[in-house]
Hints:
The chain is α/β, with parallel strands linked by helices. It contains twelve helices and 19 strands. The strands form five sheets. A six-stranded parallel sheet has the order 2-1-3-4-5-6, with helices on both faces. It has a five-stranded mixed beta barrel with strand order 15-16-17-19-18. Helix 3 links the parallel strand 4 and strand 5. Helix 8 (242-250) packs parallel to helix 10 (279-292) and helix 11 runs parallel beside helix 12 (351-375). The structure holds S-adenosyl-L-homocysteine, iron/sulfur cluster and FE3-S4 cluster. S-adenosyl-L-homocysteine binds at residues 47-48, 160-161, 163, 198-199, 234, 236, 261, 263, 301, 303, 332, 334-335, 337. Keywords: 4Fe-4S, Cytoplasm, Iron, Iron-sulfur, Metal-binding, S-adenosyl-L-methionine, Transferase, tRNA processing. Residues 140-371 form the Radical SAM core domain. Belongs to the methylthiotransferase family. MiaB subfamily.
Amino acid sequence: MTFHIITFGCQMNVADSDWLARMLRDRGMRWAEPAQADIIVLNTCSVREKPELKVRSTLGRILQETGKNRSVLVAVAGCVAQQLGNTLFSFSPQVRLVAGTDAMGQIPDALELLLANPGRTLCLTSFSTRYDERPKPREAHCGPVAYVNIMQGCDNFCTYCIVPFTRGRQKSRSSAAILDECRLLLEQGAREICLLGQNVNAYGLDKTSDGTSFASLLRQVSALDPDMRLRYVTPHPKDMSHEDVALFAELPNLCPRLHLPMQAGADHVLRRMNRRYTAGDFLSLVQALKKARPDLALSTDLIVGFPGETEEEFLQTMDMVRKCGFMSSFSFCYSDRPGTRASGYADKIPAPVQLDRLQRLQALQEELSSAWLAERVGAATTVLIEGQSPRQDDTTDLCRWQGRDPYGALVHVDLAKDADHTGQFVDVTITHAFKHSLQGTAG
Ligand code: SAH
Ligand code: SF4
Ligand code: F3S
């Protein structure tokens, strides 16, 4: 049996697909290109753009690539599966499994059941009321950077966002299970752990939690290995406690980088987004963070053209971006998501206005990102090597490797050809800044 997994969406989906691949390998299946695969899993995202169309066109492409072979078993998993449920069976005759966000752990068994019963289909979209532990794959996680889920779902209901509908209510995973998984990953060679969730610093604040706070969890994970790197994503500004901020001063292995979604810079827009902080609150938080860790690098998510956003309000977002000096950002035009509160707001912004704002914002970010990278030239840093660079320089007898510095910036460095440097921490001096990455020399 062979399988292929196609993944859209956030880091949680990437981590889910990675888990699924290892589970399927445990059951004796091999990875294959779509045209040769017996099973194809599509792990989907509904957060932006036209997710249904994307799923429909991907299913169409699979049908073509597999020569319309109906014995190919296609499973649709993740957020679009949760949202559309059994209507997905009508998207393609090959779809026989629909598995929502809380059903990921059941996919391996479900696939085996369907393989044994060629006439059957299965739709698993109920939410569970607690964090379901998944079976542990035998195959070791490979790669120096490991992602560990600490929660599922989100209770915030930002008015533009579909995640609370597709991932359900917030459910914290037990701290014992998180720590066990981290220990195992470190034994297996992980050098960096990133804790994952839609609102990580609300960890422990739901009724399924074991009473451990996010700060306490972070301390415990950090203590597992002083030499590893620790990161987390995504925090919510309103839930960053004083203790969470202080940990940037307290924990040496907590990396000096934080992805802190701001979304907008005008109070009126933030209120209508239900973000529950003001621009002033956000700036105070940034100041407190920089006080705890002066070299902290910040990145963010931004939405332009939210319903009712005026030019003046957009300029306030630009101003905040400048004040916070983000090293990078993801920015998006607001788009309606079915069932969300903002989709019912009357004062939608025309697409050309949204695009114009997006371009101006992205031009500003390019400037800030270039300045941030340029300032790194000459600095001594440590790079955790993740693998060989896709582009090699054939004129040297060295090999070009790439990895990330503590700020999460991509760094290329030339090292000896004869060894595998993946997973090594290499001391580097930054020599050059490219548009989106850095070049360094070892030593
Ligand atoms: N839990 C995270 C990630 C949510 S989704 C958080 O709270 O930040 C990732 C990003 O997609 C969001 O931060 C937001 O900037 C963007 N996004 C979500 N819904 C959107 C929508 N309807 N239109 C445009 N961008 C959206
Ligand atoms: Fe969506 Fe807001 Fe939850 Fe993030 S915090 S997942 S933007 S509802
Ligand atoms: Fe997308 Fe679902 Fe993640 S909507 S961003 S895959 S939580």
